[in-house]
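subagent[fold] <- orchestrator: predict structure for attached chain, return tokens only, no commentary.
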Amino acid sequence: MAEPSVSELAFREAISHFATGVTIVTTTFEGRPAGMTASAVCSLSVEPVLLLVCIDNRLATHRAIDASRRFAINVLGDDGEELARRFARSGEDKFEGVALRDDSDPPLLADAIAHFVCDVHERVPGGDHSIFIGEVLSCAAEPGRRPLLYYRSRFGSWRDPAAAHFEEAAGWDAGGGGIAFWDITAPARRRTSDER
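subagent[fold] -> orchestrator:
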């Protein structure tokens, strides 16, 4: 096999410039909830309704989804940084004290701005990850809330510059085409293995 022409470091630096939303992927396995932070989530198809999530093969959540054949994607709002950090760590009860929607299985976070409940339609190998393709069984969203975003190893939020103008009167970049700007809320840090 030929040596890769791109180093892992170069790839991580370049891909960090691709802004993503932040989600918590959850499932239930052997009567216990499992979950992790994930940004490698996207829609795939509308006929049938499919989405996908990429998960490191070494993680407990990978094993739990593979066994349970069902998962949920919980989209975090811009106030969800603490949840994102909690579910990116291993070795603790990530769900302790976290508000869940009543009778949800897989677990749905009460504070999510949107959620998708999926059956595993297909699992495709993808290097050191698996691509879980989920057939969406149900979904819902909370209008009017802003998402938590991840860019260059930092959490941030999307903001409407017109609204920000009235809120702050200065300090936003008017040269950005009038669409949005980043409100970075945390210093740069290394990503954990769950945040790929």
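orchestrator: received. Logging for downstream: The domain at 19-152 is CATH 2.30.110.10 (Pnp Oxidase; Chain A). The two ends are 25 Å apart (CA to CA).
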